[in-house]
Amino acid sequence: MIVIDECVSPHVAMVQRDHIRLEWQRPHRMLERARPVAWTCFCRATVYELCEGCGRAFLRRIVQRDGRHEIHEIFPSLISEAREIWTALLSGRAR
Predict the structure, then answer these.
(1) What is the pTM of this model?
(2) Domain assignment of residue 45, given as a range
């Protein structure tokens, strides 16, 4: 019998003691044309997305509660910097 894990997107690792605290803000309209290029699994209450567009990128945090969604983002940066932050987030080194 083959068991298939239903989660196909990564999960965020447990936050590390010396993690970097990200400054989450209300969504901004600066990059309306940005699109998610990576995301965490939707099986958790908090989902993270890496969004890119127009040579810039940012992370988005979506907290799902009581049928509602609270959305926050970090300020856009260079794509390479946002990808480093994304890697840190997935590994628990940033939150």
Answers:
(1) 0.88
(2) 35-91
Find out whether 9 and 39 touch, Cβ atoms under 8 Å.
yes
Whether 84 is covered by a domain: the verdict is yes
Token representation of residue 58: 């940012």
In whole angstroms, what is the distance from residue 28 CA to residue 51 CA?
A: 13
Looking at the chain, the number of H-run helices and the number of E-run strands are 1, 5
Q: Which sign, positive or negative, has the C-alpha torsion 69, 49, 20, 54?
A: negative
Measured distance CA(21)–CA(9) in Å, rounded: 23
Number of domains making up the chain: 1
- Please tell me the distance from the alpha carbon of residue 94 to that of residue 63, in angstroms, as a whole number: 17
pLDDT in tens, 68-93: 999 999 999 999 999 999 999 999 99
Ranges of residues in the chain whose predicted pLDDT is under 50: none
At position 36, the amino acid (one-letter code) is: P
